[in-house]
Amino acid sequence: MRLDERGLERWGDRIGSTVRAPVVIALEGRLGAGKSVLARAIGHGAGVDVPMPSPSYNLLLRYPAPDQVDVLHIDLYRIGSTDELWELGWSQLGEGNEIVLVEWAERAGGFMPDDHWIIGLTVPDEEPLLRDIEVRRVGHPPELPPFPMSVSVG
Ligand SMILES: Nc1ncnc2c1ncn2[C@@H]1O[C@H](COP(=O)(O)OP(=O)(O)OP(=O)(O)O)[C@@H](O)[C@H]1O
Ligand SMILES: [Mg+2]
Fold it and tell me: pTM of the full predicted structure?
């Protein structure tokens, strides 16, 4: 599936507003692939009404959302080693009423929770304003809404 930025945001918004917590979503793709765009859209859909800056330096930012849900925005790009995961409270990740969004989840080694989604974003060579999106399920995470077909392109 290929989406423009608006389409990706609309899908993310719907994920945030409909997914059942707890859920863990890994966001994968190279620098500038759109992981943060999607994370912010999911947060927005979940009801986070403050800006969500990049968590690159503090690795984890937590946002309270309505209905006792917390949105956790994690970016593991600058993690030195998987030892640092435990300082983030990694062992409880996704056990509470949380929507957990993990950029650069590849860097968590084998330590992602058993049940999660992996959303991979790729920039097509010939279409710099679109993103190819691949969704993979690991274990039994709660369902994600389908792509918004009406706004998809390509
Ligand atoms: N279809 C699209 N979907 C998402 N972003 C797009 C799209 N087309 C263009 N862009 C642009 O690509 C950039 C994506 O940046 P973003 O910060 O989300 O990337 P990232 O994957 O989080 O990178 P990093 O690894 O540095 O955290 C933004 O500048 C956005 O405007
Ligand atoms: Mg990012």
Answer: 0.95
